[in-house]
Amino acid sequence: MSIALLFPGQGSQYAGMLQHLPRTPAAARTYEQARDILSTLEGVPSPLDTADALESTTNAQLALHVAAVVTARALTDDHGLAVDAVAGHSVGAFAAAVVAGVLGLDDALHALQVRGIGMEAACAEGSWTMAALRGLPAPAVQRLLDDVTTRADPLWIANINAPDQIVVSGTRGALDTLRRHAPAAGASALTLLDVTIASHCPLQADTARAVAHALARVTPGEQRLAYFANTTGRRLLHATDKILDDLAQAVRQPVRWYDVVRLMPEVGVTATLQVSPGHVLTALAARENPSMTNVALDDIGITAAVHRARRAAGP
User: Which domain covers residue 53, as residue numbers?
Assistant: First the structure.
């Protein structure tokens, strides 16, 4: 009987998001610490969460990380929520690693800047984006991609979020072709995401190497919580090296989120709580595990979220 915190990925950000974080002592301390660290990073604007700033992949990921860690500290330190596991989707995995004790906030923010800059550089040439394809399982999506992709306009599976919800990365031209062919293959919808990069695909191999190099200079802390890996969908315990490898390699491999949420009840998770911002991960968890308690802090507020998670976890 345990609680898992969920940390959202890019796409959940919105202008002004850092002005709506919990106002508790631990949250305030963490936010000030993050601001101090960010002030030492070259090129990071202040404020970080304006609409213009968030158009940058790097800034969006830094802002999401700050929001997630600040919210988690409010839950665990100020509201006394006992958490047993963490799971972060894509960039959210860095916040999960911080809360699990593996990374310090400063090391995570430095590595995330490397990650964001690398992702943008990898997509500097051409026109890249991502899209959510609904209505088909992953094997059928892969067959469809094999049929429509070309060397000039590639497509890759990027996220397996649910049995019939697959995110793909590639060029805008390839996605236009995919849109024309997807209905005949049985897809119900193709929705472009508001991003200008292609992530979780081989295009980001150099980014993965750069992040791995940055993390190799880190002295990891002692892992305190179970961590669910993006690249394998498995639970990692007492495995700091594997967690650091997951953080680096996930940018060039598909995120296996469906495997994560499917595994959770099997290892005793009875409640999930998504930290700010948003509720996308709560919806995915609830769809796969309706018997679990799945709540998003932004939907019901911090006090109610803590109460529901505790009640589900039991004594």
Answer: 2-122+202-313
Of 192, 215, 248, the last residue of a domain is: 192
Let me know whether 73 and 171 are in one domain. Answer: no
User: Mean pLDDT, to the nearest integer, of 257-265?
Assistant: 97
d(CA 141, CA 137): 6
CB 153 within 8 A of CB 173: yes
Note whether 277 and 175 are same-domain residues: no
Q: Do 118 and 162 fall into the same domain?
A: no
Contact 145, 243 (CB under 8 A): no
Q: How many domains is the chain built from?
A: 2
Residue 170 phi, psi dihedral angles, 5° rounding: 165, -165
pLDDT interval class at 1 (50, 70, 90)? low
For residues 148 and 134, what is the distance between their CA atoms, to the nearest angstrom? 17
Residue 57 and residue 168: Cα distance in Å, rounded?
17
Shared-domain flag, residues 117 and 139: no
Q: What is the pLDDT of residues 15-63, one digit of tens each?
A: 999 999 998 999 999 999 999 999 999 999 999 999 999 999 999 999 9
Q: Note the pLDDT tens digit of each residue in 113-139.
A: 999 999 999 999 889 999 999 999 999
Give, in order, the Cα–Cα distances in Å from 104 to each of 98, 111, 219, 294: 6, 11, 9, 28
Q: What is the CATH number of the domain that holds 142?
A: 3.30.70.250
pLDDT range class, residue 150, cuts 50, 70, 90: confident
DSSP, residue by residue, 206-231: HHHHHHHHHHHT-------SEEE-TT
Tally: H helices and E strands in the chain = 12, 10
For residues 295 and 273, is the Cβ–Cβ distance under 8 A? Answer: yes
Position 309 pLDDT exceeds 80 = yes
